[in-house]
Amino acid sequence: MKFKNNLNDPSNRLWSWNPNNTNCCHWYGVLCHNLTSHLLQLHLHTSDSAFYHDAYHYRFYHRFDEEAYRRWSFGGEISPCLADLKHLNYLDLSANYFLGEGMSIPSFLGTMTSLTHLNLSYTGFNGKIPPQIGNLSNLVYLDLSYDVANGTVPSQIGNLSELRYLDLSYNYFEGMAIPSFLCVMTSLTHLDLSYTAFMGKIPSQIGNLSNLVYLGLGSYDFEPLLAENVEWVSSMWKLEYLYLSNANLSKAFHWLHTLQSLPSLTHLYLSECTLPHYNEPSLLNFSSLQTLDLSGTSYSPAISFFPKWIFKLKKLVSLQLGGNDIQGSIPGGIRNLTLLQNLDLSVNSIASSIPDCLYGLHRLKFLDLEGNNLHGTISDALGNLTSLVELDLSYNQLEGTIPTSLGNLTSLVELDLSYNQLEGIIPTSLGNLTSLVELDLSYNQLEGTIPTSLGNLTSLVELDLSANQLEGTIPNSLGNLTSLVKLQLSRNQLEGTIPTSLGNLTSLVRLDLSYNQLEGTIPTSLANLCLLMEIDFSYLKLNQQVNELLEILAPCISHGLTALAVQSSRLSGNLTDHIGAFKNIDTLLFSNDSIGGALPRSFGKLSSLTYLDLSINKFSGNPFESLRSLSKMSSLQIDGNNFQGVVKEDDLANLTSLMEFHASGNNFTLKVGPKWLPNFQLSYLDVTSWQLGPNFPSWIQSQNQLQHFGLSNTGILDSIPTWFWEALSQ
């Protein structure tokens, strides 16, 4: 109970830890000995699934998920009373947020000598690893990965003679070489030092770790580890996983022959490595290799073709060759890799049609051909790859229609055909893909209506049909997609009204219906979309009062909304104090509407505002009375209105982030002293039709980042000073 009292438990996961429940062996996360009832294990890991609906939520919306993570994970302080659990052998506190940044791993953990398993990964600690950890002589498993340590690795870690598993990955030991004491810990079977900012050469003594099954030495691209050779790996007969991403192997001329001699090597990751001059091997015997990642590798000199030796790897399950500038066509030899489940050839320069040999790889689950120069049509035979889970053909030059046979791929989770030249209708058969989480058909030339069958895709998290030639109405069936986080239908020819059924999409974070022929008013049902962060209703025919729109959004949506764009959509009326409820808004775009009146004082509450565009409206009054406190604003566009008044030094003093100032076509007078220097640096300035004169404004000399300026019709009678022309020539 003392341990619990020092913790923050916002989700009340430890509700069972209470004095009335006297048998602690029944408490959450606790495991006891069957006979003695001694407390042996404490499992307080926070699972990703607790705060992400799935990986796609994390992928698209980090900010939202971080908040959810904090609401679910444990925080606070780890009490020293934990050391009183003398029989505890298993402690997992991973994926929580203890104490906050700048606090080190507690040194008292070094007194818990019964521990055999200690996992502190991703716990929010950030300091030196306490040397007392070296006292845990029974430790078999130690995970200190993901931003829990920096500085140096204490040599006392080398005392852990029973240690089998050591993970120090994703920490920052800047300026430190891989410690030599790690190279004598011969009991290790798992060692991960990836992305730790270790510098220099990979020590050949690491080859002493002959019991290793997993070795991770991936490094950052700005500070790659150097291996003059890889002969040290020859003694690692048990090695199954070798992770050397970003390593500089340019002098390891015999790397391929050395690695292929390892009888147990199953997974080889060499992504972003620098490899020596390429020689096609005459004899190759990678008898066990199942995973090969050569994505983003560079040869000296460069090669632009498929290494033929790869086609001899008959047991290969995963092949990643993305980002290698491979040219020409996909060789027919790939048909030999009949066990392939993952094929990534993305971001190359492959210029051919999709070859028939790919359609024979019936075990494929992941096929990524994104970012090439593929042309021709998508064959109906693609529908035979019924094991596919992810299919990405985006950013190519594919044409023709989407084959209806894609409806056979009922295991698909992700389908991305965006940025091609596909035409015709969206096949109704796509409604069969009920496991689909992401569907992206954007930036094609698709026609016809949005099929109602897409409403069957109830697992969908992202739907992007933007930048096509779709017409007709938005089907009511899209309201069935209650898991949807991102809905983008912009840049089509959709018409009619926005369906009220979209109010059912309560998981929605991004909604973009812009650049369509939609008309009418925003349905009040959208007030249910409390998680919305980004809304774009620009270039529609809304004919709605702006205050009506804000009244719909304010009660529930306002607290999380970061971007609202309703440009050229026929909004009218006056802004009201409802605008002050949108306290987290970063981007607010209301240009080219018919909004009038003065800006309400509540505008000053929008402390996160960075981009504001109110241009070409009917606003009046002096806006700086409301905007003067917005210190984060970098772009202010208020040109083409009926604003008026005197702008003084104090009105601009807090606008320290301002970089773009569009304010022409109003009736302002700038009244500042002759020695006034703004607190901002502008790259864009247009104050056409302001009263600045009669003297040429000397403060412009301080704006040394200016790339565009407009000063016409500003009452300046002075001659233009020479410093102005000198600034122009720079």
UniProtKB/TrEMBL annotation:
Q: Which UniProt keywords apply?
A: Leucine-rich repeat, Membrane, Repeat, Signal, Transmembrane, Transmembrane helix
Which intervals hold domain Leucine-rich repeat-containing N-terminal plant-type?
1-32
- Name all Disease resistance R13L4/SHOC-2-like LRR domain ranges: 82-270, 281-440
Q: Which Pfam families match?
A: LRR_1, LRR_14, LRR_8, LRRNT_2
Quote the subcellular location field of this record. Membrane
Under Gene3D superfamilies, the record lists: Ribonuclease Inhibitor
How does the record classify its membrane topology?
Single-pass membrane protein
Q: Which GO terms describe its cellular component?
A: membrane
Question: Can you say what this protein is called?
Answer: Uncharacterized protein
Q: Provide the species name.
A: Glycine max
